[in-house]
Amino acid sequence: MSAERAEGGAGHVAAAAADDDGAGREPGSLRADGVTAGYGGDPVIRSVSVRSDPGRVVSVVGPNGSGKSTLLKALIGILRITQGQVSVGDRDVTNLAPEDMARAGVGYVPQIDDVFAPLTVRENLEMGGYLLSRHEIADRVEHVLAVFPKLGSMLRRPAGKLSGGERKMLAMGRVLMLRPAVFLLDEPTANLAPTIARSLLEEQVTRLAAQGAAVLIVEQRARAVLAVSDYTYVMGGGELRMSGSPAELSASPAFVSSFLGGHRN
Ligand SMILES: Nc1ncnc2c1ncn2[C@@H]1O[C@H](COP(=O)(O)OP(=O)(O)OP(=O)(O)O)[C@@H](O)[C@H]1O
Ligand SMILES: [Mg+2]
């Protein structure tokens, strides 16, 4: 979508920025160009191109099974990319192993299994700093608590006893330990009550971007995630169907009837 950017605003800037060819890429920006990947058989996602830049929240929406998690798993190096390229800044990171992706500054919060349930909140954070020295880990825990102060009162609690929203905050905090330039978040609001989901998106996720990270977030709650997004991609059947600023997508009858018409809030 390119026409009728009547609403302008931050979305307009992001939409315009999304049109360039990536020359002179900003450090810490994420680019995926024409990514094709799957689970060993036929590709599940085909020729998907997305990007996010420092300070931006960019979202990927789409129905169940449309390939959103598969896209993130391909970007983070869990699934092999058979065609296409992923870069962070000027660096080609296509098909790096997940640990090397972490070293390259890409953090990933998976849809499930996002924390170690028997370990305490503090231990989870410390494990998130597995690439750091002990001294750095202590500093970094303090930083994470400054970003997510609510975790401070829960440090000795086992992660398995947290509420769903608290658990997601911990999962993001654990990834934040390595100070990633890029955050890949897979449906952080799944299984959360609507009000908790909204505050997670509006407070915690936007805080990651405010820290300077490039955020790429997968969500089924289209309305709620559009409210915090600078730019949004729509997946269907393993391919990109459309993309645009929240204002552009909200003005698209096809998008509204598919994603904003029901009760997906
Ligand atoms: N481990 C796997 N092995 C083979 N196929 C898989 C595997 N995981 C997912 N798929 C298939 O890949 C397709 C895309 O799944 P994916 O999990 O990426 O969808 P999604 O958009 O994240 O859905 P949801 O919103 O339900 O999380 C689906 O057809 C799914 O059945
Ligand atoms: Mg998924």
Structural account:
By secondary structure, the protein is α/β, with parallel strands linked by helices. The chain has a single domain (27-260), classed as 3-Layer(aba) Sandwich (Rossmann fold), CATH 3.40.50. 35% of the residues lie in helices and 23% in strands. It has ten helices and ten strands. The protein has helices at 9-17, 68-76, 98-103, 121-128, 134-147, 164-176, 194-210, 222-226, 246-250, 253-260, and strands at 30-38, 43-52, 57-61, 81-88, 91-92, 106-109, 182-186, 214-219, 231-236, 239-244. The protein has a six-stranded mixed beta sheet, sandwiched between helices. Strands 2-1-4-5 form a four-stranded antiparallel beta sheet. Helix 4 (121-128) packs parallel to helix 6 (164-176) and helix 6 (164-176) packs parallel to helix 7 (194-210). Residues 1-20 have low confidence and may be disordered. It binds adenosine-5'-triphosphate and magnesium ion.
Which fold does the CATH topology refer to?
Rossmann fold
What binds here, in terms of ligands, is:
adenosine-5'-triphosphate, magnesium ion
Unreliable runs: 1-20
Q: Give average pLDDT, whole number.
A: 89
Helix- and strand-based class?
Answer: alpha/beta
Helix content: 25-40%
Question: Radius of gyration over alpha carbons?
Answer: 18 Å
The number of helices is: 10
Task: Please state the second-level CATH architecture.
Answer: 3-Layer(aba) Sandwich
The side-by-side strand order for the widest beta sheet comes to 6-7-8-3-9-10
Query: H/E series, N to C?
Result: HEEEHEEHEHHHEHEHEEHH
Q: Briefly, what CATH class? A: Alpha Beta
Query: N-to-C terminal Cα separation, in Å?
Result: 23 Å
Quick one: CATH superfamily? P-loop containing nucleotide triphosphate hydrolases
